[in-house]
Predict the structure.
Amino acid sequence: MKIATSWSTEERPDIAAALYEQIREELGTAPDLLVLHCSVTYDAREVSAALHRCAGDIPVHGGTSCLGVMTQAGFHSENARGIGLLGLSDPDGAYGVGASDLGEDPAVAAREALSMALEQAGCAGETPAMIWMTAAPGNEELLIEGLTSVVGDNVPIAGGSAADNTVSGEWSLFSAGQVHENAVVITAMFPSSEVFFAFHSGYEPTGKGGTVTRAEGRKLAEIDGRPAAGVYNEWTGGLFSDSLEHGGNILSQATFSPLGRKVGEVAGLPYFQLSHPSAVTPDSALTLFTNIAAGDEVVLMSGTEDSLVSRVGRVASSTLRTNSAAPGEIAGALIIYCAGCMLSVQDRCDEVVQGLRDALPGVPFLGAFTFGEQGCFLGGENRHGNLMISVLLFRK
């Protein structure tokens, strides 16, 4: 197993081809899988076509990333523009990518994309060691349900939802030679060596919480029988008082105060799936970027700039410790970091990268800034969350 990355902030029609040639030169061979992320300031079809012309039928998995990307070389965003490519060479492994438009039934789309990925890997009917997912935001829970209906609950699923720069639906997704807008892209991984994964956040629970008593989809209407926005405002000390009367966007304000749901415990310590409130509705409900249901227990979470900056490096370090692995044993990594977190610490992204460098010295990685994160917790639970960090490490 060998991994290389390349990146640029240049605006050139052939930039993807240039990045591919860098990857091929460093690997000394054609890669067996390519992962592509770029900001929406690039022409997605131009990027995809340029890469396809030189990479041919090599499986390509990708999606747009908010403002740019990060690699071991730094945070790459110039005038909201950045592109990164990761190439993986593993001739003894097998990798396939499939893509399907979400259509009327996202779960069916996920199954179709997985079937295509398994077929391309030459492993139809087999169970992959890992599933990597990138999708248009909005239906992530249904996509995970579709995948687990095929592979069961014991295959880790991770990845991040495609993003743009303004939450205006301009995102794109990539597979070999193709660009998609409202789709899911799935990579089925059968690596020749181990993969290690982690799913965490940079937030801690407060002592404030309650029970969801009315909700539908991604709209949280009531907590403990009261309008959810009013309860949330009380928990945060009146942070959203100005939005209560007429409603409005609270996305930026809520970044450091998301809602959490306990998923499980490790050594007596709980771990949480986070939901980012995006708006207060005129009827004092909250809209979220995750599904939520009546009966769910929610707790107010709290984060700081420092915690969001340092956490991703700490997650990478803990992933190594959990698996008794040393940085020198790691060929490379894929990092998913919430775009909302990135925007909140944008002027400190170099510190975020340095934290990863400290945890993974000499290890190439590609990081995307996403509008939703998917991952597998230590207890084996595959979940979709917000304001989260998803890490995938490949052993040499």
